[in-house]
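Figure 6 in text form: structure in, sequence out.
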């Protein structure tokens, strides 16, 4: 379906916090996209952790550990949250890995050689206690604005490396005008255009007073944001022009939370141009999840633990909820009540019961053996479903894709209610009963493919119950063709419901 290899990234997550539902949201969206594209061609899904910077160094020191030992201990839970939600990345990059640091230095050298990086003075108000530069406008009565500090600040001027960001402003604006789809949704696009219209300053890309970062030749470390952004190409072996890089760059979709859109849609494209590289096709800045309308924050004590809700509701139920509840891109409110409604309704009543009833009837009337299916009006009606759902997924319209898939779930349930296989059996209408049973089983095979990007565990469960090997695989254009389920194959229904009622 896709003309070339597909590449999707999540932001690399800042390691010192705990994974929260917002991280799960981004990762699940990327995973869904990647699973769909993996089924249909070569694809690559990158995620990882951002491990440098002042805060990490300070937290490690407080714990009496080296920053490396500290991040080694923390990365475990970031990988665990991926595993818990079936997020199947192709690579997980840590910015503390040698492969990354080596290439960051190489990028720095290339930027310097091409005149995009120069040495300049970085001046500003500095709090030594916090080792932080503060904008004059942030100071409180001329003192450090950190409420736990409040010390005097001093005017500091140090030699630092600068990236010539300002010279890319006009080119960026022109690019935005010519590519209205490149930053989505529209709200993010408009904000970035306004920022660009306000003008750009060159970016300081080194820090001399910090040592927890990628060391730069001549001293200091690379600014943590530049270090972080480069992961999208270092993971592909950019600096050695590796095969991954040649296959997958430019990225098709880079997912970010809207709060970090600026780094990805102003600084990042300018850096790529400075390296003479193509820009990603699209940066998508998704919205925030609130909790029952309130912003989640540690201080409000209303942060959802993503491990805990996965245990309670099942990871597939949460994955489904996140992508079904609201259009991807807008903010939306999380509530356990809404999760419960989706879980018991769409998943339990609609999908779970369909699987259970269909297979139970096949066992009862045909000893579990798939009959020969005659021509199916249902198959004909949904012949373009794979294309519709796939197009929606590729466009990040996850909700629309699930709605299209659920039309099919509804139609299959209606087949049972209208054709009443138990009456066909009683009447001895063998042909009609065979057709109905085949429609249901073939419909379930389709559903296993269609929901696999969204709910991989459930898809595998349906696949196994159909008596099929492994998990759904293969391109939708060939697999979602009516009649591929072999007559005579034997199903293996489970006594366990797919979605036990909560
Ligand atoms: Zn301070």
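Output sequence:
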């Amino acid at each position: 379906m896709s003309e070339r290899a597909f590449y999707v990234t999540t932001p690399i997550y800042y390691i010192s916090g705990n994974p929260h539902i917002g991280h799960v949201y981004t990762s699940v969206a990327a995973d869904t996209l990647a699973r769909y594209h993996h089924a249909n061609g070569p694809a690559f899904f990158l995620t990882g952790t951002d491990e440098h910077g002042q805060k990490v160094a300070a937290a490690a020191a407080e714990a009496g550990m080296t920053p490396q030992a500290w991040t080694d201990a923390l990365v475990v839970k970031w990988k665990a949250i991926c595993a818990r939600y079936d997020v199947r990345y192709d690579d997980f990059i840590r910015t503390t890995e040698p492969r990354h640091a080596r290439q960051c230095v190489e990028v720095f050298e290339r930027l310097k050689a091409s005149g995009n990086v120069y040495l300049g003075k970085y001046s500003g108000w500095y709090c030594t206690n916090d080792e932080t530069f503060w904008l004059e406008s942030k100071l409180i009565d001329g003192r450090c604005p950190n409420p736990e500090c409040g010390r005097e600040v001093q005017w500091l001027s140090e030699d630092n490396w600068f990236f010539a960001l300002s010279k890319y402003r006009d080119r960026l604006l022109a690019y935005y005008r010519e590519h209205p789809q490149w930053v989505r949704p529209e709200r993010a696009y408009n904000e970035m255009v306004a920022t660009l219209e306000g003008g750009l300053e060159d970016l300081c890309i080194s820090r001399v007073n910090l040592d927890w970062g990628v060391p730069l030749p001549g001293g200091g470390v690379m600014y943590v944001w530049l270090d972080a952004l480069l992961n999208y190409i270092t993971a592909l072996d950019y600096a050695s022009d590796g095969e991954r890089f040649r296959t997958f760059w430019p990225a098709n979709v880079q997912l970010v939370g809207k709060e970090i859109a600026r780094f990805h849609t102003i600084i990042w494209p300018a850096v790529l141009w400075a390296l003479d590289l193509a820009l990603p096709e699209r940066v998508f800045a998704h919205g925030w999840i609130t909790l029952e309308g309130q912003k989640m924050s540690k201080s409000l004590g209303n942060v959802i633990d993503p491990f805990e809700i996965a245990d309670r509701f099942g990871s597939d139920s949460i994955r489904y909820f996140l992508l079904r509840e609201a259009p991807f891109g807008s903010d939306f409110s999380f509530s356990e009540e809404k999760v419960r409604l989706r879980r018991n309704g769409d998943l339990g009543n609609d999908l779970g019961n369909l699987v259970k009833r269909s297979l139970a009837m096949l066992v009862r009337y045909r000893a579990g053996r798939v009959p020969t299916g005659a021509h199916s009006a249902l198959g004909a009606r949904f012949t373009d479903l794979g294309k519709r759902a796939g197009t929606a997924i590729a466009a990040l319209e996850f909700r629309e894709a699930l709605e299209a898939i659920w039309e099919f779930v509804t139609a299959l349930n209606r087949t049972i209610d209208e054709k009443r296989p138990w009456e066909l059996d009683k009447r001895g209408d063998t042909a009609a009963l065979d057709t109905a049973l085949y429609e249901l089983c073939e419909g379930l095979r389709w559903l296993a493919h269609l929901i696999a990007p969204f709910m991989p565990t459930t898809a595998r469960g349906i696949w196994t119950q159909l008596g099929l090997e492994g998990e759904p695989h293969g391109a939708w254009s060939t697999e979602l063709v009516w009649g591929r389920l072999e007559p005579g194959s034997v199903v293996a229904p489970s006594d366990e419901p797919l979605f036990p009622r909560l």
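Caption detail: The chain has two domains: 6-116+164-286, 336-479.
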